[in-house]
């Protein structure tokens, strides 16, 4: 195992960088999309229910099936990987964004409006900062989930550590097959832990002190 890792250390580092980059970029895109959608629907009970239903139904779609469907229109490579990871990353964040915004005390919102703040300014300066801890919790859940899904996108020749896993599985019983699978799995777990620690630090930096207290 040590010999396998030593011989391919640079390749493992490069694949790890690709994997982390794919997940982080898709998480950022998913967060922007989720917060924007939540800001549009959270004031309507019907739209809020619809958003929650879409989130619940979307999580039941097998990632393999979605990747297979995307190969036909988009081919192999980065594009289907980005679409799949972003899609699954959006679902938990959207649900938490809606929950966070709808859970804000109406009195706080009315007070902000009462001192002359516009609806948009109230959303940006009052509601989103108060909902941020809940949204960030959704981002952390999403990050752990899509870290594994990003490995599955190797099925469509997407970037990342999934190549080690699929390569090993395709030749089980052959030389270094188990080592290849273990390397991919362990590296994904390590990246997931690192990303979660980074998100915890981000939460400490970006959460207003009054809310933390």
From TrEMBL:
Location of this chain's protein in the cell: Cell membrane; Membrane
Membrane topology: Multi-pass membrane protein
GO cellular component, one term: plasma membrane
Regions crossing the membrane: 20-42, 54-76, 82-104, 146-169, 181-202
Source species, domain of life: Bacteria
Residue ranges of domain ABC transmembrane type-1 in the record: 16-199
Protein name, entry field: Osmoprotectant transport system permease protein
Taxonomic classification: Bacteria, Bacillati, Actinomycetota, Actinomycetes, Micrococcales
């Amino acid at each position: 195992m040590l010999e396998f890792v030593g011989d391919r250390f640079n390749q493992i580092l490069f694949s790890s960088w690709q994997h982390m980059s794919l997940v982080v970029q898709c998480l950022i895109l998913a967060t922007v999309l989720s917060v924007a959608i939540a800001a549009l629907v959270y004031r309507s009970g019907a739209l809020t229910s619809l958003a929650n239903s879409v989130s619940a139904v979307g999580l039941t779609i097998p990632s393999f099936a979605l990747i297979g469907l995307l190969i036909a229109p988009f081919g192999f490579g980065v594009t289907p990987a980005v679409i799949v990871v972003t899609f699954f990353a959006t679902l938990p964040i959207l649900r938490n964004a809606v929950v966070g915004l709808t859970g804000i005390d109406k009195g706080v919102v009315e007070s902000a409006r009462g001192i002359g703040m516009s609806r948009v300014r109230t959303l940006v300066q009052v509601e989103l900062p108060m909902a941020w801890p809940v949204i960030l919790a959704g981002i952390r859940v999403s990050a752990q989930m899509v870290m594994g899904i990003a490995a599955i996108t190797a099925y469509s020749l997407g970037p990342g550590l999934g190549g080690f896993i699929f390569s090993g599985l395709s030749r089980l019983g052959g030389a270094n097959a188990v080592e290849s699978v273990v390397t991919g799995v362990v590296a994904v777990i390590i990246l997931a832990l690192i990303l979660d620690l980074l998100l915890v630090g981000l939460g400490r930096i970006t959460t207003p002190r009054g809310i933390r207290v």
